[in-house]
Amino acid sequence: MNYPKIPNNPNFSSGPCSKYNGWSINNLGSSFLGRSHRSKEGILRLKNAINETGTLLNLPKDYILGIVPGSDTGALEIALWNILGPRGVDILAWDSFGSDWVNDIIHQLSLPNTRVLKAEYGFIPNLKSVNFSNDVVFTWNGTTSGVCVPNADWIDKYREGLTICDATSAVFAMDINWEKIDVASFSWQKALGGEAAHGMLVLSPRAIKRINEYTPKWPVPKLFNLKKKGKLDLGIFEGLTINTPSMLAVEEWTNITKWANSKGGLNFLQEKTKKNFSIISQFCEKNDWIDFLAEDKLTRSSTSVCLKIVDPWFSSLNKFEKKKFVSKLIKDLEDRKVAFDIKSYRTAPLGLRIWCGPTIEKNDLICLMQCLKYSWESLGKK
After folding, report:
1. Residues above pLDDT 90, as percent of the chain
2. pLDDT-derived band at 31, boundaries 50, 70, 90
3. What is the CA radius of gyration of the chain?
4. Peptide bond into 10 cis (omega under 30)
5. Helical H segments across 233-311, by residue range
6. Can you give the pLDDT at residue 166?
7. Distance, CA of 298 to CA of 53 (rounded, Å)
8. Chain CA centroid to CA 62, Å
9. Does domain 34-261 sit in CATH 3.40.640.10?
10. In this predicted model, what pLDDT tens digit does every residue of 37-68 receive, in sequence order?
11. Are 233 and 25 a contacting pair, CB within 8 Å?
């Protein structure tokens, strides 16, 4: 049997994610490189990147959006350091990054009135048990577990606390009800395949009010500081960034948002993601040796798709033998230039993690799954 056709694009990493089909560095403007981000034109370019993003996301008109340092991690931690404190906190965690926010809130900020709602890999906490009198911190999509919230219906419309959402591997690709979200963070490197190190922070009117009326008891470093003269510094949300951004990354992000809008905007991005996910879903239905890490179909991520090998032969192996085989399987795919960076996250259960966001082409996923089947059949049970 001949080896199947390999993907045109073998980049299935869950971050930084693949560039869109047709991307080229030659598409990026370079006339502004070497110029100051504080110049009039620099601020205009940053503001344009913010406006294009907000339009693409269909954010409510009274929400604000800004570029911040530190990718998604920086954006989310900026929110935690500026906002938490006045109320108790419910923290939901079901993957590695959700656990990071637990550590921030309990061990770094040392907030006393906290409650951790945790679930093992493959599952999600009981959403009905969330107390919306508290501030609620959660991840929309667990990038390292392939488990996401099914929707925003579980969030109380009349909540007293704020909802603070790490949305980095969900935004653009999944349908987010912004009226249920008070704070959201994401990065350029995820769903749309931008460059790393830049985060974006979304604030609702309720979040803005909290920042304006509340002063944290702990020191807030300059890189985290959202205030100026005791109030929210709105300049951050108009292109006056906290620190120096990469203007080349800004040019690329603007190019990406133009590409997304030219293809049909948010609806195109979400529908393409669903179609991509369906390729893996159909493959798992037809091949009984592999399955989703997420147990419930309603909580299966359509972007960072995490898979586990469930074949009885594989299950009979010891821990070392399992790890050795999965490494061998992945190396075979890498050596053949079929797929790069698809090993499960280092702290997640052993398996595969395949990005299916909107910059991935459906035909490439079809080729990947056929190649994966070939490698399994040629390497497995030996």
Report:
1. 97
2. confident
3. 21
4. no
5. 247-263, 265-286
6. 97
7. 28
8. 24
9. yes
10. 999 999 999 999 999 999 999 999 999 999 99
11. no
Would you tell me how many other CB atoms lie within 10 Å of the CB of residue 53?
A: 25
CA 318 vs CA 322, 323, 326, 355, 375: distances in Å = 6, 9, 12, 28, 21
Domain positions in the chain = 34-261, 265-379
Distances (CA, A) of 104 to 18, 39, 72, 85, 120: 30, 36, 14, 13, 19
d(CA 121, CA 144): 9
- Long-range contacts, 125-130 (Cβ 8 Å, 24+): 125/92, 125/93, 125/94, 127/92, 127/154, 128/154, 130/90, 130/92, 130/154
| Encoded tokens for 52 | 């294009």
Closest C-alpha to 84, from 161, 185, 23: 161
CA angle 242/244/250 to nearest 5° reads 105
Answer whether 145's CB lies under 8 Å from 352's CB: no
> What is the pTM for the complete model shown?
0.97
What is the mean predicted confidence (pLDDT) over 100-112?
A: 95
What's the CA gap between 98 and 115, in Å, rounded? 13
> Across the chain, what does the average pLDDT equal?
97
Q: What share of the chain is helix, strand, coil (3-state, %, to 5)?
A: 40, 15, 45
Copy the structure tokens of residue 281.
Answer: 């879903």
- Collapsing DSSP to helix, strand or coil, 308 comes out as strand
Please compute, for residue 62, the number of CA atoms within 13 A of its CA located in the half-sphere on the CB side.
Answer: 9
The encoded tokens of residue 268 equal: 């195109």
Q: Report the pLDDT value the prediction gives residue 382, as an integer from 0 to 100.
A: 63
Q: Which residue type does 64 have?
A: I
Judged on CB neighbours under 10 Å (0-12, 13-18, 19+), 82 is buried
Domain 265-379 has CATH 3.30.530.20: no
Mind listing the pLDDT tens digit for each residue in 246-262?
999 999 999 999 999 99
364-373 burial code (b ≥16 CB/10 A, e <16): bbbbbbbbbb
Q: How far apart (Å, rounded) are the C-alpha atoms in residues 255 and 268?
A: 17
